Amino acid sequence: MLTTLSVIGLAFSLDLLLGEPPTAVHPVAWFGRLVGAVDRAWSDDERRQRLVGGAIAAVAPLVPAAVAGGVVLVAGLVHPMGGGIAAALVLFLTTSLRSLLELTEDVVGATADEADLERARERVRGLVGRDTATLPAGELRSAAVESAAENLADGLVATLLPFAILAPISLPAAAAAAAWVKGVNTLDSMLGYPSKPIGTASARLDDLVMLLPARVAAVSIAVAAADPLALARAWQWARVPPSPNSGWPMATLACALSVRLEKAGVYVLNPDADLPSLADGEHAVTVVGRGAVVSLVLAIGLAVATSGVVTP
């Protein structure tokens, strides 16, 4: 149990101290290049493309899982502390908190001055995929706040929870699970578009994997905002976005902040409120940060529970 807590503590210390590693040396970016290599028209037949996409969704995430689990296993055989350090590195590389909060804060801050809006439009592209060229300040803040909520689930909870549950049993298995989930998320972000039949299976798999993390993130946000009823109020809008999962943390944060979050032509959450003000955007960063702490406490609780089961 102490090993698990030490590993999780080291991973989050690395994130707080270092943030995201440079893209050139980030294993997730390396996996992205692998996905890019298979992202092509394998056939003119849409059904065959979907079949190929199913094989990619089944096999591709196993690559980072095997590498991560293998590295932790070998490191543990080399030195008693090696496995724990390697597992912490895997968790660090498959989660992201500091960079998310800093980028969100940067975008929100840039909307304070009309002269900085172009910088905000440029920076927000690191958070969202929509066209930001003409977005006004309120919609830029909305985009940043939406992404912060959604990425609490994708970038932290989704990999942290399985890692925490499995770590007391096997650090290699925990590392492999975290890397597998990150692989699924990456596949969906690169292939999971309606215009890409090859990505249909990846999108469906990601929907399944994110079912629980998105809702845990929503609960964490409600607790962090000291407004547990925000989750109940979010119920009516959580299913509005096309994704079956992303609406939960986004709608919960919208209700907790009493703001409207909107992607033009796609969804509007908490429509009777106003778009986020500068103060609302800054508060959102604080709430998501606290939500990450709540998620971490939950993960530690799950690790303790698992440890109690495996070592009665």
Automatic annotation (TrEMBL):
Pathway: Cofactor biosynthesis; adenosylcobalamin biosynthesis. It is a multi-pass membrane protein. GO terms for biological process: cobalamin biosynthetic process. It comes from the Archaea. Keywords: Cell membrane, Cobalamin biosynthesis, Membrane, Transmembrane, Transmembrane helix. It is found in: Cell membrane. InterPro entries: Cobalamin_biosynth_CobD/CbiB. One of its GO terms (molecular function) is threonine-phosphate decarboxylase activity. The chain crosses the membrane at residues 51-75, 160-181. One of its GO terms (cellular component) is plasma membrane. HAMAP family: CobD_CbiB. Converts cobyric acid to cobinamide by the addition of aminopropanol on the F carboxylic group. Belongs to the CobD/CbiB family. This is Probable cobalamin biosynthesis protein CobD.
